C-alpha cells in the first residue's frame, strides 16, 4: 500500500504552486476548476511518485497554526528527502536567500537524520532531510 497524496487548502494556488515547483522540483498538472462550487486545484507530482494536491475554494477558513510555535495536533509537516547533507545545507541557503525563514537547523537530529525546518508561503511546516553521515 502507498500513500497516494496529501492535500493542502490555500488562499493562493499560484503562489503555492510556484513555491513547490521552484524549490522542490514538483511538476504540476493543469488547473482543475469546478465552476459550480468554486473549487480549484492542482496536483503536484514529485520524482519519488508522491503527489501533493493544493486546493482553493471560497469560504475555507484561514490556517489556525500558532505562528510562533507552529505546533498543533494532527498533520504538522511535509518532509522532502535529499541524497546528501550538502544538499540539505544548499537548500537551506537557497530558501533563506529567497526570504523564507529557517526555523531550525540544519542540524543532526537524535534519530540519525540531518535536516532543517522552514515554512511554505502559507505557513505550513516543511522539513528537508537526509540520513546523517559522520565525517
Question: What is the structure about, briefly put?
Answer:
The protein is an alpha+beta fold.
CATH homologous group name of the largest domain = 2,3-Dihydroxybiphenyl 1,2-Dioxygenase, domain 1
Number of strands: 9
Distance separating the two termini: 36 Å
As a whole number of angstroms, the C-alpha radius of gyration is 16 Å
The geometry reads as globular
Give the CATH architecture of the largest domain. Answer: Roll
Q: Major sheet: size, sense and barrel closure?
A: 5 strands, mixed
Tell me the structural class: alpha+beta
Helix content: 10-25%
Question: What is the CATH domain class of the largest domain?
Answer: Alpha Beta
The residue-averaged pLDDT reads 92
Strand content is 35-45%
Q: How many discrete structural domains?
A: 2
Low-confidence stretches: none
Number of helical regions: 2
CATH topology group of the largest domain: 2,3-Dihydroxybiphenyl 1,2-Dioxygenase, domain 1
**What's the SSE pattern?**
EHEEEEEHEEE
Overview of the molecule:
Strands 1, 2, 3, 4 and 5 form a 5-stranded mixed β-sheet that branches. 18% of the residues are buried. The protein is an alpha+beta fold and 135 residues long. The chain is 19% helix and 36% strand. The chain is globular and about 55 Å long. The chain has 2 domains: 6-56, 2,3-Dihydroxybiphenyl 1,2-Dioxygenase, domain 1 (Roll); 77-131, Roll (2,3-Dihydroxybiphenyl 1,2-Dioxygenase, domain 1), CATH 3.10.180.10. Strand 8 and strand 9 (125-131) form a beta hairpin. It has 2 helices and 9 strands, in the order E-H-E-E-E-E-E-H-E-E-E. The chain has helices at 13-24, 85-97; strands spanning 6-9, 27-28, 32-34, 39-45, 51-56, 77-81, 102-108, 113-119, 125-131.
